[in-house]
Amino acid sequence: MYELGEVVAERRIAMVLPDGGTSELVVRFGKPHPAPLPGGDWCCPFQIEGLGDGAVDAAFGVDSLQAMLLAAYRVRLLLTEHAEQTAARLDWLGQPELGLRVDPGLVL
User: Fold this and answer.
1) How far apart are CA 73 and CA 29, in angstroms?
2) How far apart are CA 60 and CA 43, in angstroms?
3) Which of 36, 54, 70, 102 is the most buried (most CB within 10 A)?
4) Cα separation of 46 and 9, whole Å?
5) Coil vs helix vs strand at 39
6) How does residue 57 score in pLDDT terms, banded at 50, 70 and 90?
7) CB 40 within 8 Å of CB 33
8) DSSP secondary structure letter of residue 99
9) Do the Cβ atoms of 77 and 85 come closer than 8 Å?
10) 34 touches 40 (CB < 8 A)
11) How far apart are CA 73 and CA 103, in angstroms?
12) Mean pLDDT of the 79-88 span
């Protein structure tokens, strides 16, 4: 079990159920920190309130940025899976993939 710690980012997502009912999911990302396990990796805790038991989970990376990016990726996958299983429609400002995918499309 992980602790969320200091929240550094939060997003509220509308959920529309098949019967027309609505609710809100709240996604929180904790401040990345060195992982408690040996090896030098980093941990970014996250929580999805309103989905399941709201337990805190975590993603790991070789540095703090990778841990945070992987946490956002994991949240997007979990929300997509939940929407598919429940036939719910999730929305955040009408953005594709709830605005959790960043691809600026820059050509270098």
Assistant:
1) 12
2) 5
3) 70
4) 10
5) coil
6) very high
7) no
8) G
9) no
10) yes
11) 12
12) 92
Single-letter amino acid, residue 17:
L
Specify the pTM.
0.88
Query: Rounded to an integer, what distance in angstroms lies between the CA atom of residue 80 and that of residue 83?
Result: 5
Distances (CA, A) of 23 to 27, 35, 50, 61, 102: 13, 34, 8, 32, 25
Predicted confidence at residue 71, as pLDDT, reads 96
Place of tokens 């600026």: 104
Q: Report which of residues 94 and 74 the model is more confident about.
A: 74
Instruction: Say how far apart CA 57 and CA 4 lie, in whole Å.
Output: 8
pLDDT bucket at 1, cuts 50 / 70 / 90: confident
Residues contacting residue 5 through CB under 8 Å, at least 6 positions apart: 30, 31, 33, 45
